[in-house]
Structures are given as structure tokens and as C-alpha cells.
Amino acid sequence: MNEDIFDVLIYLFENYMDSDIDIIPDTDILQTELKAAGFNSGNISKAFEWLDILALHEEPTFKTAHNFRIFCAEECHKLDMECRNFILFLQSIDILDSVSRELVIDRVMAIENKHISIEELKWVTLIVLLSQPGEELAIAHMENIIYQEASALLN
Questions:
Q1: pTM of the model
Q2: Which of 61, 108, 116, 138 is the residue whose CA sits 20 to 30 A from 86?
Q3: 81 and 36 share a domain?
Q4: What is the secondary structure of 67-90 as a DSSP string?
């Protein structure tokens, strides 16, 4: 099967993160389920490591309401203009704040792919928001962005 870390993350989101399940199975059970679903061990391990690092994120002691973001060369290489503009757009409509924006960029840069598509960026953004307390409204808006676009493509 030709899949990558995004496929594993999306599978976990659709089956565990976006549901009302109170108890999420432990890592061993999840790994067994993911292997049975056809994912390879390397991508499963990378996805869990990616999520573990996301969970370790600590909230800064202060937030700045207005700041300016300049993308470095490595970020520009991985995130094309459409992706960079999308991140800034999400911040302008208050789906992302400066902290969550930086966390999205950090998690994108941690992925081994040379380039990140806009669809992959949307999923990373949603998963990052899910890891942050008190982001229910931003999560709902991000889900609408992802699923409305998908349904528009089907029509």
C-alpha cells in the first residue's frame, strides 16, 4: 500500500479523534489495528512520534495579539505560496492564533515530505487544533473548511 504519515493521522482522526469515544485504546492495540488496516510499521511509528511531540507542546506564558510572520527559506521550500497564504488566512479569521500558527508550522516541518499540499496542511491544522484545549469553535470551522471543499469536489 502506498501511504504515508498523513494517511495514518487521518485514519486516527476519523476513527478516534473525531468521535465521542471516551476511552482510546492503548498504543499497542492501535498499532495492531493500523497494521491490520494495511499501514506499514515505519509510518505508524512516525505518526505516533509526531503526535507525541504535539502533545508535549506547552502553552507560552504570554500571547501577542498582533505579530508579523516571515517564513524562512526551509519553510518556503516545504510550503508553497498557497499554503503560506492559507496559514495567514486562518490566522486572519481567528481559526489560528500566533501560538497555534507556529505549532502548525512546526508540525508541518517535522514531516519528511519535501512539499506539503494544501490538503495535507488542512489536516495538520485540524489535528493541531484538536490537541489544544478550548478550540472547539476553531475546530468546527476547520472541519467545515475540509469537508465542504471535499463535498464541493464530489458535486
A1: 0.76
A2: 61
A3: no
A4: ------HHHHHHB-HHHHHHHHHH
